């Protein structure tokens, strides 16, 4: 996937969340641990919903923001949004799954922060702030909800 504009970034981010959802769902089907299956199912649903919200965000964003060039970041840090699911979540415990998923969210947040720091147009900065808040809140929600699951 060639990522050049902020519109492409949204497509890339959506692809990452969709891929995570598919992988979590796939791994959930193959695990024998009921606790892990419940966690993987919850996280897959969560990632799919986040992908849907990103699509809605893109539909409502201003064309000026979406057409902002941001290829510089991706020249330095090439990305692969459609990685294969190697069923790694199936072999992890619940804490490792959550840590891996939160690390993925942190990478996305880092990208948004970088792009925000370089944005010169108000509409672009506002869109990136909205995206950062969305990812940060969703990461906090995952951490909170999975901590509650651990308490059960």
Automatic annotation (TrEMBL):
Superkingdom field: Bacteria
User: What is the species of this protein?
Assistant: Pistricoccus aurantiacus
Q: What is this protein called?
A: ATPase
């Amino acid at each position: 996937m060639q990522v050049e504009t902020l519109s492409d970034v949204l497509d890339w981010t959506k692809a990452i969340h969709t891929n995570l959802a598919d992988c979590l769902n796939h791994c959930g089907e193959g695990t024998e641990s009921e606790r892990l299956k419940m966690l993987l199912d919850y996280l897959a649903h969560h990632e799919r919903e986040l992908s849907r919200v990103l699509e809605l965000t893109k539909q409502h964003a201003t064309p000026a923001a979406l057409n902002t060039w941001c290829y510089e970041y991706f020249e330095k840090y090439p990305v692969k949004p459609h990685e294969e699911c190697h069923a790694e979540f199936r072999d992890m415990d619940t804490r490792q799954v959550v840590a891996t998923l939160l690390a993925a969210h942190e990478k996305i947040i880092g990208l948004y922060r970088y792009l925000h720091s370089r944005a010169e147009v108000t509409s672009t900065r506002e869109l990136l702030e909205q995206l950062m808040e969305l990812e940060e809140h969703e990461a906090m929600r995952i951490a909170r909800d999975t901590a509650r699951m651990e308490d059960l």
